[in-house]
Amino acid sequence: MSTEKRYSTMTEHELKQEIAQLKEKARKAEALGIVNEFAVLERKAIMAEAYLLNPKNFKKQEVYAIKNDPGKYFKIDYLNGVFAWGYRLGGERELEALPISLLENKKGGQS
Questions:
Q1: pLDDT tens track of the chain, all 111 residues?
Q2: N or C, which terminus of the chain has less Cβ within 10 Å?
Q3: What is the DSSP letter of 61?
């Protein structure tokens, strides 16, 4: 029986612990060459990180750099929970949703 909690119900401390565990498991999977497991664990960590952010800090019609995708930008049409819905600039103009943890203000640059 699973006792997993939803990220939306976790405290900040629980989320940070979960992210650390997921990243450690992802490192191990990568070291063992288990690409699929690595990708799943990385996505879970990105989702958990989204719940540490305040969606109110992300604005409609603003353009954000996409983390880990240099030179790629995303314009937000609307927000739904911790997901930003919009379009990649220079892309197919296909509506997609990205966790807000993948977005960073392009004016602020990479840290």
A1: 556 789 999 999 999 999 999 999 999 999 999 999 999 999 999 999 999 999 999 999 999 999 988 999 999 999 999 999 999 998 788 999 999 999 997 654 433
A2: N
A3: T
Q: How far apart are CA 10 and CA 62, in angstroms?
A: 29
The strand pairing partners of 65, in sequence order, are: 73, 104
Tokens of 47: 């989702």
Q: Measured between alpha carbons, how far is 84 from 56 in angstroms, rounded to an integer? A: 11
Q: Where are the beta strands (DSSP E) in 1-111?
A: 63-66, 73-80, 83-88, 96-99, 103-105
Count the neighbouring beta carbons within 10 Å of the beta carbon of residue 11: 9
Helices (H) and strands (E) in the chain, counts: 2, 5
Q: Is the pTM of this model over 0.70?
A: yes
64 beta partners: 74, 105
Residue with tokens 């612990």: 17
CA-only gyration radius of the chain, Å = 15
* Structure-block tokens of residue 92: 């197919």
